[in-house]
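INFO worker-7 received task bundle
INFO bundle size: 2
INFO processing item 0
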Amino acid sequence: MRNFAKLFYACIFFVSGSMSLLAENPTNSTFCSINPTTTLEKVYKSPIGTWEYTVEDVPYEYSAGVLIITKEKEEYKVVVKVNYNTLTASEVKVNENTLNFSVYIEGGKVQVSLQVKDDLIQGTADSNEGSFSLKGKKK
């Protein structure tokens, strides 16, 4: 019976000591520091994935293509499939919902800046021949 009493008091001590872990934290509203809504928003707004895009006012062969955006460790990579070619982008930078990268098409540098919103992208492609509007949708 003594062992049962010790076990009972040990359980009460453990449970009452653990209650503070379940208490509300005024800085984060719960003890858990991961907010599932925020995490879901970050994943959903992420540029990672395959995107079908169109570009206005350019030659037909460059008017549509596919962007494949991946992330390895902390580095983003962009592959552009256009006009039966696969091009690897350079200078890839992601800041929240903005994606910037450069790609060389027919020897000319094209600087691309995109905004990610839900499953849509929109932005511009700037080259020596001008600035062109780009729109796309996640595949």
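INFO item 0 finished
INFO processing item 1
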Amino acid sequence: MSQNEVATILHVTRQSISKWENGRGYPDLDNLVRLSDIYQLSIDELIRENTELAAKIQANNAEIKEKQVQLKKVNTEIHQNTDEGLILILLVLASALIPPIGMVLPLYAIWRNTKYNSLHKVDCKFNPNFWTNLSA
């Protein structure tokens, strides 16, 4: 039986039937009795939840939360900036005292910072107004 047919029998709109089916609304008591007659089910069977389905939904929700926690942990480990920038700056400044290291270490520091620094994702090369907007 289609939603339109049931809606016509109950004297309600098809959208009301759709809301009831999707759990966004509930029929009043008179319509609930009529629905039980139409579908030849007891009111108890119409109202009662499917406990097996509810258990599966709870298990899926728990698994999703666990996966989200794991993903957040991985993202934090990947993108965490643990004072590495400060250490690199200190090494570069110290390398100014030793000329051969002073030629190589700044290039390594720049490469390391652009590769692993999560704050480097701001692309200021292609935005000519970046520096003017920053100072404003």
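INFO item 1 finished
INFO post-check item 1: Helices lie at 3-10, 14-22, 29-39, 43-47, 51-79, 84-95, 99-116, 130-135.
INFO post-check item 1: The radius of gyration is 32 Å.
INFO worker-7 idle
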